[in-house]
Amino acid sequence: MPSQEQVKRWMDGYRKAWESNDPDDIDALFSEQALYYTEPHSGPWRGRQEIVRRWTEIKDEPGDTEFSWEPLAIDGEIAIVQGQTIYRDPPQRYSNLWVIRLDPTGHCTQFTEWWMKHVDETTD
Questions:
Q1: Chain segment 76-92, per-residue pLDDT in tens
Q2: Contact 28/13 with Cβ under 8 angstroms?
Q3: For the chain, what percentages of helix, strand and coil (3-state, to nearest 5) are there?
Q4: Confidence band for 2, pLDDT divided at 50, 70 and 90
Q5: Is residue 124 part of a domain?
Q6: Which of 33, 43, 102, 114 meets the CB 3.0–4.6 Å disulfide criterion with 2?
C-alpha cells in the first residue's frame, strides 16, 4: 500500500516531469507495462516507451501552468488525487481528479485522469 510520502514523491516527480518534459523524468514515474489514460473512457497509452513518446508530443511548455493538489484517498495500491491546473496563456482553469496505481517500488502501473474545464471563469 502506498504511503502518503510515496504519493507525495510520485506527485513531485510528475510535476517535475510536467515542467521539464525530459524523457528521463517521465520514464522514472512509470513501470515498464504502465497504462496511462488521458481520459477515463479513451484507450490508454501502453507501456513506458509510449507514455514518454506521447507525453512529449503534446507537452505543455515549462512555466505555462500552476498546479496544486491534495490526496483524497489512499487505499491498497490506489491513490486518488484532486488537483487544480491554471494555464497562463490563454488563461484557463481545470479541476483534475487522478487515480494512480503504484507498485511497491513507487512506479505507476496505471494512471487515469479526469479533467474538467471551468467555463466563464477568470483565473485571477
A1: 999 999 999 999 988 99
A2: yes
A3: 25, 40, 30
A4: confident
A5: no
A6: 102
